[in-house]
Amino acid sequence: MSTFWSMWISVIALGSIFGLCWLLHATRKSQTNTTETTETTGHSYDGIQEYDNPLPRWWLYLFWGTIVFALIYLVLYPGLGKFQGLLGWSSANQYEREVEVANSTYGPLYAELAAKPIEELATDPKAIKMGQRLFATECSVCHGSAATGSLGFPDLTDDDWLYGGDPDTLKTTITVGRRAMMPARGMMGNLTDAEITQVAAFTRSLSGLSVDPAAAEAGKEIFYGKGSCTTCHGQDAKGIQAMGAPNLTDNVWLYGNSQQQVEFTIRNGRSGEMPAFGETLSPEKIHLLAAYVYSLSNKQ
Ligand code: HEC
Ligand code: HEC
After folding, report:
1. Is the fold of 94-179+275-297 the same as that of 193-271?
2. How far apart are CA 259 and CA 256, in angstroms?
3. 54-108 pLDDT, tens digit each
4. Ligand 2 atom 41: the closest Cα is on which residue?
5. Which residues line ligand 2 (CB under 6 A)?
6. In the chain, N or C terminus with fewer CB closer than 10 Å?
7. 276 pLDDT more than 70
8. Which CATH superfamily is domain 193-271 in?
9. Phi, psi (degrees; rounded to nearest 5) at 71
């Protein structure tokens, strides 16, 4: 803050306080007269008149009180431009102090938990409770408070994984994030609308959904042929986790299983994005989160 603005703020702040003092002082004459009168100010609004009575005492003292409070506050805390206040308080150092207190309280606890393997933490009620709280703040916006997901956001409680559900993979997913790449209209982007209808029918039939058999038959050729769907989803269509390509043979769907939804996926492609948390969360917290997610699908 430049000296000019610093002065500007101080003058306005102190000026208005002293201005108020002057106002209270200047009108004190009517205030010393404590008995109520029937005299009016002479104003008349639609026949309603105003008595000329002093301010109530309690109200007046309250007013002086707030002025004294404001002056003491401005001496102790920053408020007058560059002046830091006698207490040296700032929102930044208050935050730092709180973080320090939190670190010294929870630090050893986090360190202790982070030293244990995820499989073990997943059975520890205290660790799960902490993981669940972290999940509620960091992850539930997308995955839901029960981690069951929604359209486009995977369910983390089933044992069906895009990238894998082992402890290390979970930690990698949370730390570096993920970006899926399902190309529009197959690998070459060359499928016609009719072909999309057929390959969608075949894909749905893999999950046991009822489809037009002729369309599914034609769709199978496309799936293994010009659509090159197997490049990512695998020869058996069970998915390839290294590419985040889902298993198409189970009835678990990230983007819906209606003919229309599956056609939409194939026509436009999909690229779900899981944000990276490596920058914002400590490795200890990520460890706890991974343990919590692991516990959801690995119940004893
Ligand atoms: C902005 C939304 C968003 C937030 C916040 C988010 N995720 Fe995700 N997450 C996604 C999406 C979308 C995917 C699926 C990515 C894809 O389609 O490939 C995903 C995928 C995952 C996967 C992989 C699932 C699988 O089947 O392999 C895990 C594990 C996961 N998230 C855990 C978390 C955790 C733990 C947090 C909190 C630290 C979190 N996510 C926060 C959107 C989010
Ligand atoms: C380059 C790799 C790649 C190719 C080729 C590919 N896919 Fe995919 N597919 C993916 C990925 C990755 C996802 C997950 C997208 C996401 O999570 O956002 C996906 C998702 C899907 C889904 C959504 C599944 C669900 O759970 O909602 C369907 C359906 C699908 N693919 C069908 C096909 C068909 C049919 C073809 C061939 C025409 C094909 N894919 C070709 C990578 C591929």
Report:
1. yes
2. 9
3. 778 898 899 999 999 999 999 999 989 888 899 989 999 999 999 999 889 888 9
4. 229
5. 162, 180-183, 186-187, 199, 203, 223, 227-229, 231-233, 243-246, 248, 253-255, 262, 265-266, 270-272
6. C
7. yes
8. Cytochrome c-like domain (1.10.760.10)
9. -65, -45
